[in-house]
Amino acid sequence: VANLWLAGKLPYIHAVEVRPPANYLPFMFVQYFWGDSELGIRILDLVLIYFSSVLVFLIGKNGISRRVGFISAILFPIFYYGYFNFWYSCQMEGWQNFFILCEIFLYLKNSKYLFSAFDFLAGFCFGISILFKFTSLPIVFLFLILILVRNRDKQSTALGKILNGVYFCLGFFVPVFITILYFYSKEALSFLKEVLYEFVILGYSKEK
């Protein structure tokens, strides 16, 4: 599918596969620069897990202690590769986890600094994670609730919390809207909706 997309064709039209749109992007990136290289996608996945481990360390350090962050960062790749039991390609759970970790890191940072831009970026990261794995959707609602009830200084108002929730939602919808706009511009939005609704949401397949 990634090769077809690079050749100017589109997923869900020229190749029907039950995956969210962003699933093909890592493979397109590798195939564009290194061709059909299993080594390239393997290296990209290892780099991703390295940066994910760094985020795990920072989250543990900011949330609990430096020692907890260090131990968690070591255990993260062990459990990740141990659970999926693969070493030859990349899993979309890795990309999903990376952007969720970005959101958690931004949430913890914003609990201290209270910048609305952090909530926007947190939502943006979650929007990207949805495009890799739809299983991120329940976590989006969880973190929206956490943002709304987050401990703030005594001068905080209900309106301020609502605005931060709005910034989070705006950030979330930006990558989703860009994806919809892209497929709409290619006159492929109806195909995208049909495949994602029937194959992913309803969970059954239909002969094409």
Architecture overview:
This protein has 208 residues and is mostly helical. The longest helix has 28 residues. 29% of the residues are buried. It contains nine helices and no strands. Helix 6 runs parallel beside helix 8. The radius of gyration is 19 Å and the shape is flat.
List the helices and strands and how they pair.
Layout: H1 2-6, H2 25-34, H3 38-63, H4 66-84, H5 92-113, H6 116-132, H7 137-149, H8 158-185, H9 189-201
Helix pairs in contact: 3-4, 3-5, 5-6, 6-8, 7-8
How many β-strands, per DSSP?
A: 0
Q: In whole angstroms, how far apart are the ends?
A: 16 Å
Rg on CA atoms, Å: 19 Å
Low-pLDDT segments, ≥5 res: 204-208
Mean pLDDT: 77
Choose one word for the global shape: flat
**Helix proportion range:** over 70%
DSSP strand (E) fraction? under 5%
Order of helices and strands: HHHHHHHHH
Largest sheet: none
Question: Which structural class fits the helix and strand makeup?
Answer: mainly alpha
SS field, number of helical segments: 9
Keywords:
mainly alpha; disordered C terminus; flat; 9 helices; 208 residues; single chain
Condensed summary:
The protein is mainly alpha-helical and 208 residues long. The chain has helices spanning 2-6, 25-34, 38-63, 66-84, 92-113, 116-132, 137-149, 158-185, 189-201.
